[in-house]
Amino acid sequence: MHSSPLLLEEPIRISSILEPSKPTFFPAMTKIVGTLGQKSREVDTISRCLNAGMSVARFDFSWGDPEYHQATMDNLKAAIKSTKKLCAVMLDTVGPELLVNKTDRPISLQADTLVVLTPDQNKEATSNLLPVNFSGLSKAVKKGDTIFIGQYLFTGNETTSVWLEVSEVHGDDVTCLIKNSATLAGSLYTLHVSQIRIDLPTLTDNDKEVISTWGVRNNIDFLSLSYTRHAEDIRHARDFLSKLGNMKQTQIFAKIENIEVNFKILSILLGLKHFDEILREADGLIFSRGNLGIDLPPEKVFLFQKAAIYKCNMIGKPAVVTRSDAILLGAETLRGLYPVETIATVGKICAEVRAAIKVKASVIICFTSSGRAARLIAKYRPTMPVLSVVIPQLKTNQLRWTFTGAFEARQSLIVRGLFPMLADPRHPAESKSATNESILKVALDHGKAYGIIKPHDRVVVCQKVGDSSVVKIIELED
Fold this sequence. Notes:
This is Pyruvate kinase. By secondary structure, the chain is α/β, with parallel strands linked by helices.
């Protein structure tokens, strides 16, 4: 009697789960966006984050001044140089975020007592009074409304976050009943009122100042537009960037986290026009699930997430959220004690998903100048990684000559399954076949260093020769 192949396969599958991941295992298709800050800003820590799999560094301007973030940026540049790892930079705007104005001194809030929220930011924060940065709060809420205050919304840690119920509105002040005892220990606390409209611009004057100084100086690759509510928000931001010279190439990611989009999100499966307009205008989307979990019933968040990511995949734009193009780590790397270990663990989880798929070709190598060809291939979610060889283009504005390509390579670092490298500008890929072969050899060596190409692997190569596109399959020797 022949034994069933299924019975033989099961123990092998179980043993592979029990075995630790091999250190040479090639990187995950999903990218990791790490937020740099208090616990992750030294050169050594950032270097280890890069080696562990971080491909985009996020700078959150909800806290810290530009000088603080510049010192972190300088450390990132040093880490990139020492590790020889490509890393993109994302500037996350503050936007119309409601913040509690307080110092680092812990403030204890007792359940069943009252606390007053006031727009007078000259007053000191105490257990009975919390200054906030929004003068329109008293006009936006009514008796019985729920207000949440916490570090990075929806932390689930009830000792550092608090739920309030509005009991009285008097002038500009809002008196609330504290629903659970908590201690506000850190300096950054966000205030969230479910289902109200915040009458503040998406791109604030403070955001514009940071972008036009810090952003321009550091040649940022991505702008994360917090609290995006309408397609017009993105058009306004893009118009602002277009006037800043080198910021024209910066991609804008719409961060979806507030109720104006969320109510419409519930009908996304019915062909949501509002969401589709945002998706059309943005270069990619970021889903802030913590905020969504406050505005929407928690069980609805994953339904929205699946539908929204499906739409992003269909249109071929990156979606930054769990199990998509990129996973964004906020507090985990910003103030968590184990930023490097977190990135490494998430990377292993993503890689193990990839390990379950057996492929005939180990990698697709795509020669491209704008990055579009490689993105198009990645859009169709091939089971193997795509190595994007970006060929710099020499351009002039009649005043000076510049090479393009660096932006295009770095901006691929947020796209699932895409691993970019920048070719030597002295050897354009469209020239002699010998030059093509030398660039291909460099690309293959790059793939070996990444761990995505091994001896005897089959490799699919896509390149442009003159006006024609050529696809060839090569089998590697030892």
